[in-house]
Design a protein that fits this description.
The chain has four helices and ten strands; from the N terminus they run E-E-E-E-H-E-H-E-H-E-E-E-H-E. It is of the alpha+beta class.
């Protein structure tokens, strides 16, 4: 398991557009569906990554608490499903239903959405304000596989609370860390150098 940090996309960046299918409902979702929210969380996850497995239940708790407050949430999996079949749409749906995801779980088959967000790892979190400008792209919290810290989502919660109360989110943010996105052969983005 090789750990990779998020690329820390520039704060103030407008949310890149997407149009992908939700593996749970089969319905298409695009960025327009989330306009009018007080905030939007776009999170890149997958089924098999230990970093994601560690926070899944806490992520559902976060969503259950914050969606009624006006936070739109969408999860996206961009992994290569030829070499990582456990991350395919059927398994995504199974995982989402088992955990009771209250948010859509989208499959980015071409990996173009991950590239547009400069996503690097799972989990990779992007929190936008009501104008869809990036205000937070840091870690969920300090929990890591094997470090005996229970996931709470404290870092994301603090940022979200600030957005909802109209305060500025501090620009000093700890990058997320996790398994690298499993890029298709020849598809690794240039932002990795």
């Amino acid at each position: 398991m090789s750990a990779v940090n998020s690329t820390m996309m520039e704060l103030g960046t407008k949310a890149p557009k997407f149009s992908l299918e939700d593996v749970i409902s089969g319905k298409p979702y695009d960025l327009k569906k989330f306009r009018g929210n007080k905030a939007l969380l776009v999170i890149f996850i997958c089924n098999h990554c230990p970093y994601v497995k560690l926070i899944k239940e806490s992520l559902v708790e976060y969503a259950t608490e914050y969606m009624p407050k006006g936070v739109g949430i969408v999860a996206i999996s961009s992994n290569d499903v030829v070499n990582y079949t456990q991350d395919g749409p059927d398994k995504m749906k199974e995982d989402a239903e088992k955990l009771g995801y209250p948010f859509p779980y989208l499959f980015d088959e071409t990996q173009e959405v991950a590239k547009s967000y400069k996503a690097a790892c799972t989990p990779d979190l992007f929190l936008f304000d009501e104008t869809l400008e990036l205000v937070y792209r840091g870690q969920f919290d300090d929990a890591r596989p094997g470090n005996d810290i229970d996931p709470t989502g404290n870092d994301l919660r603090d940022a979200t609370d600030k957005v909802l109360s109209g305060e500025s989110v501090p620009e000093e943010q700890t990058p997320s860390i996790g398994c690298n996105i499993k890029w298709k052969e020849g598809n690794k983005p240039d932002y990795f150098g």
